[in-house]
Amino acid sequence: MVGSLSDNPFAVLTAVVAPAILTNACSVLSLGVGNRIARVVDRTRAIVLELNSLPADSHDYQWRVRQLEKLRVRGNLLLQSLRLFYAGLGCFAASALLSVIGASLAYYEMHRIFQAFAIVALGTGVVAVGALVFGCAIMVREITIAVTSVKEEVGIAVDRFGIKQT
Hints:
The protein is an all-alpha fold. It is built from 4 helices and no strands. Helix 2 runs antiparallel to helix 3, helix 2 packs parallel to helix 4 and helix 3 runs antiparallel to helix 4. 26% of the residues are buried.
């Protein structure tokens, strides 16, 4: 295997491209999560303002308190997924760097050190993929809560304003 890496420059490129593409995926996911966090913050602030104008024993007040709890849970889930995406981002970048260093070690026939770098790069890549997968799973949970909240709001609007659903 060491010979194939030192004889074929495309082998190094292949080892670097996969982490680079996954690094890009983590970056895009992180941007999306950041936007979702901003929306949760905005919605939380709007509900808190609405609570100030409602009597504490009203149905609307109680409904908004339940919404605040859902927003708190969503915010925590988003923060967890963002942490995982950032961890994955760092690990994918580290994996790519370790692969380049390992390839240069193979070129100079430093086989033992190359093997150590290959094992660490592989381990780092596995951790990165795990972070990406778990972050996505958490995002699915958060989105489920968000859609449930929207359905509840639509149901309330339908009841209150007599809107016909199609």
